[in-house]
Each structure stands twice: as C-alpha cells, then as structure tokens.
Amino acid sequence: MNEFVVALGWFGLYAPVALGAIGSAWGCALGGSAAIGAMLDSEGGYGRFIGVSLMPSSQVIYGIVIMFSLQQSSIDAANGAALFGIGVLSGFTMLFTGIRQGEVLASAIHASKAKPEIFGISLAPAAVLEGFSVFALVFALVLAGSIPS
Amino acid sequence: MSQPHQYIALVTSLPDLGKLFTRKSVPISEFRLKQRMSMLEAEHTGLLQELVEITAWAGVAKYDQDLEVIRRANQVVNDLKDYPDLQHLVGTRMETRTLIAALRRRRDGQETAGDIASWGYGRWCGRIKANWSDPAFGLGHFMPWISDAHRFLQAGDHIGMERLTLTQVFRQLDHFGALHEFDFEAVAIYVLRWVIVERWSRYNEDDARDRLATLVEAALGNGSPSGIDPAVTEFPTDNSFAFEGATS
Questions:
Q1: Burial of A127 by CB count in 10 Å (0-12 exposed, 13-18 middle, 19+ buried)?
Q2: pLDDT tens digits, A15-29
Q3: In Å, how far is A127's CA from the nearest CA of chain B?
Q4: Closest chain A residue by Cα to residue B13
Q5: Which residues in chain B have their CB less than 8 angstroms from residue A35's CB?
Q6: Residues A112 and A119: beta-carbon distance below 8 Å
Q7: Domains annotated on chain A, with CATH
Q8: Are A90 and A44 in contact (CB under 8 A)?
Q9: How distant, in Å, are the alpha carbons of A91, A97, A100, A101, B130 from that of A128?
Q10: Helices in B38-144 by DSSP H: which ranges?
Q11: Which residue in A106, A114, A115 is closest to B8 by CB distance?
Q12: Residue B8 and residue A34: Cβ atoms within 8 Å?
C-alpha cells in the first residue's frame, strides 16, 4: 500500500508540468493556427497576432513552479497523497485553461481581424482564464507549504 | 496540420464579408478563394461543390425538370449526413425556392398548386396546396417575407424581389453560421455567403433596369434586344466553377 501511495506522490509531483505542457502546446497550436490564417489576410500587425497566440504558454511555466513547490526531500506514505491531490488537480486546471485559452484566442484573432478596434477587449476572456490558472498556482503554493515533509 | 487547426487557419484567412448590400466588390477574389479552399480535405471539397451546386442557380440550371432538382437535392442531403446543419440549410433553401416558385406560378395564373410533389420540396408543400389563394400560403404569421414577395411579384418589382430573396437566404446562412466557428460547416457557409455577395456586387441597379426594359421590349416585339449578346441574356449554365451563379 505504501509503495502505491509513493507512486501516486511521484505522479502528482510531475503532473503539473506534464499536464501544463500539454495544455500550453494545445492552446498555442489553436492560437497559432488562427494567427497564421489571419496573417494571410492582413497587410500588417503580424506581431500582435503571433504575440497573443503564445499566451497559453504560461500554463507550463505555472506547472514548473508548482512542481518545485511540491518537491520534497523524500516522498513517502505521509506526503504521497497530498502531492498527488495538489499536483494532479492543479495540472488538470493548467491543461483545461490552456486549451480553452487557445480557443478564445483563436476567436479573438478572427473577430479582431474583421474589426481591429476590438482587439484589446477581445482578449479579456483569455485574461480571465489566465486569472483562473493563477488562482490554481497560488493556492497550490499555499497548500504545498502545509504538506508534511 | 491536423483538421481542427487546419480549419482554424482557413477560417481566419478569409476576410469578413460584411453586411449584405453594403459592398460594391467582394473582399476576396474568386481566384484567391479557390486558392484558400485548397486547404480543404478532398472529401470536403467534393461536398462543398455539391452544396454550392444545389444552392446556386448556375448549378441547378442544367436540369430541365424540377423533379431532377428535387432528386439531386435529396442526394446532396444524403451525402451531407455527417453535417446536419448543412442538411437543414439545403432543406431550408429548397423550401424557400418552393415558396418562390409557388408565388410565380400563382402570378402566372395557375389556379391550384396542382401536383406539388413534382415541383415542390419540404415541409410547406401541404400548406401551399391547402392555402393557394392566401397571399402568404397561410405561412405569413411566421414568414412575413412571403407577403412582401407576393407584393413585389404582383408589382413586377424584380429588383425588390431579388433583394428580398437574397436577404432571406443571407438570414438563413446567418442562422446556421452562428452555430459554427472553425469547422467545415463554417467554411461552407462562408462560401455560400460569398456567392451571394459576389452576385450582388455584379449588379448595377441602373444597368439592370435598362437591361430589363430592353428585354421586355424585345419579348413584346420581335428579335434579339439591341446591344445585348443573346448568350448573356440567359442564366449562367456553366458549372465548371460551382461558386458562380445565382442563389434564388
């Protein structure tokens, strides 16, 4: 049983990085595809399309920060379950927000191409999703401080 | 590029068509549009051609009989089995055509709907037959445009009729377009919109009036209208490029 909890602990430790990387890759691919398409139909402003399409890359960075905060001198039965719970749940948050952020960025790029004046405001939903990722990051850090080492 | 990403890039590469009747030219040329459509998968290219063929006048003009058009529409609906919204779109368009055909038949003096199954399509055939004498075929309470179309036809206002028909078709496309953003349906609806905008952009109201007057004169008198090539007085029948042609 102890070995199983230790395995879960390791799983939870790496989950934020792995799931965050998947979320970032997926989100950047969605946003990047929209940016590439928009560049075909635009005379300028390529930088801003590519720039916003990279917004979902923050999820993997948050995942790395969470992983370091969860890192313990040893993973055992006392802390394995906590590492698993915090790591996996925060990882799934990064995965989900990364994908969804990519989708709303694709929509924002598409809409702002037709109506350039809404470019700034169209990024608001993506910023809100970023806020949710930051919540998950901050509270993962808070809880990481109370894990028995 | 995987399919969802491919369609995101394709949709965002297409310029906004804007509102109907507001543009004097299409924002993307036929050549460029065809070039962009090369990003479609082979299966989708075929489906798009079928869809445009059945919804554009140029596509159905080659059929001599209404029954052939109905048969072709049923075939296209069947081929679009994986895309229910496009199936509904074809059905709605065919129903609109049926209503306009009924209005024209009535204006031309037909006293009953006759064998409506041989020229009509969709849900409203029974209503049209049962309410033949009603200006809007008993459908005016939820399709008020039919009464307007009846008035335009009675007044011989062909431009008003064309405008009304294109507006209706554009609304149908807007309705289905709102359900799709980055997929094959979104691309197909964009192309159908483009066909309408392109068609309208080719119109010049004054020229159209002059041409109509010349045609009427020629029809009442004898011979070919002066200054008009007989080849261009017919509806386009060349379907080599299926994006071309009317939509009513």
A1: exposed
A2: 999 999 999 999 999
A3: 21
A4: A37
A5: 12
A6: yes
A7: 11-144 (1.20.120.610)
A8: no
A9: 18, 10, 11, 9, 56
A10: 42-55, 57-60, 66-79, 84-107, 125-130
A11: A106
A12: yes
Average pLDDT of span B66-72: 91
**Partner residue opposite B5 with nearest CB, options A29, A107, A109:** A29
Sequential DSSP letters for A57-90: GHHHHHHHHHHHHH--S---TTTHHHHHHHHHHH
pLDDT tens digits, residue range A71-112?
999 999 889 999 999 999 999 999 999 999 999 999 999 999
CB B181 within 8 A of CB A107: yes
Q: Say if residue B203 is exposed, middle or buried (CB neighbours under 10 Å; 0-12, 13-18, 19+).
A: middle
ipTM for the complex shown: 0.84
Q: Which residue is associated with the tokens 């430790």?
A: A13
**In this complex, do A37 and B8 lie within 8 Å of one another by their Cβ atoms?**
yes
What DSSP assignment string belongs to A14-64? Answer: HHHHHHHHHHHHHHHHHHHHHHHHHHHT-SS-HHHHHHHHTGGGHHHHHHH
